[in-house]
Design brief:
The protein is α/β, with parallel strands linked by helices. Helix content is about 40%, strand content about 15%. It contains 9 helices and 8 strands. It has an 8-stranded parallel β-barrel with strand order 1-2-3-4-5-6-7-8, surrounded by 6 helices. β6, α6 and β7 form a beta-alpha-beta unit. The longest helix has 16 residues. The chain is globular. The two termini are about 20 Å apart.
Length: about 210
């Protein structure tokens, strides 16, 4: 995954009604450019996660959007996802790569650490993710990231970086200007007052203008 300019990276809400969400996803992906979708469900059985992946994959692939599995490269493999995103407490990057192979897209959470990002990049990660930059309702904030971290990474590394954590259409601009290759969004799209498609359109306008 590489970005010529900043792109939108979507994550699913932690709880979804799969069939209804598939319709919302189709509308969102049709509304503007989306770089990828990460399937991140919490407190959900493996069977439900697999059913979600199998339902959402055709929606994504019909629109040329890769689907990544959060935390679970083993489930990514069995469901045919395009890759996985792993955190510092999840499956180690090397193990995820062994499971998924050289062609899979694998990203790594690096919190606010240039050191962790360098380790991930040197190991072969396709992107590194920094966050959280702002308060968020979808995840307890254990690590806060500074905009300076994005600036530092962008100044010397060619490995794409993702900014995550409470990003909205109103606060994304400083992160884009600091050098984020992707802005990762959940609530600002899926809970947009006018619907997910409107949320994506707003980000598309912002990204074109920044």
């Amino acid at each position: 995954m590489s970005a010529q300019s900043c792109e939108l990276y979507l994550i699913t809400p932690p709880k979804i009604e799969i069939d209804a969400f598939a319709e919302d996803l189709a509308a969102a992906l049709d509304a503007g450019p989306v770089a990828c979708l990460q399937l991140r469900l919490k407190d959900t059985s493996d069977d439900e996660v697999k059913r979600a992946a199998e339902t959402l994959l055709p929606v994504c692939h019909a629109r040329g959007v890769p689907l990544l599995m959060n935390d679970r490269p083993d489930l990514a493999l069995v469901t045919g996802c395009d890759g996985a995103h792993v955190g510092q407490q999840d499956t180690p990057y090397d193990e995820a790569r062994r499971i998924l192979g050289d062609e899979a897209m694998i990203g790594v959470t690096c919190h606010n650490s240039i050191h962790l990002a360098m380790e991930a990049a040197e190991a072969g990660a396709d992107y590194v993710a920094f966050g959280a930059f702002y308060p968020t309702e979808t995840k307890e904030i254990l690590h806060h990231a500074d905009i300076e971290t994005l600036q530092t990474w962008a100044s010397f590394s060619t490995v794409p970086c993702v900014a995550i954590g409470g990003i909205t259409q109103d606060n994304a601009k400083p992160l884009i200007e600091a050098g984020a290759d992707f802005i990762c969004v959940i609530t600002a799209v899926w809970k947009h007052s006018d619907g997910p498609a409107a949320g994506v359109k707003r980000f598309a306008e912002l990204l074109r203008a920044t």
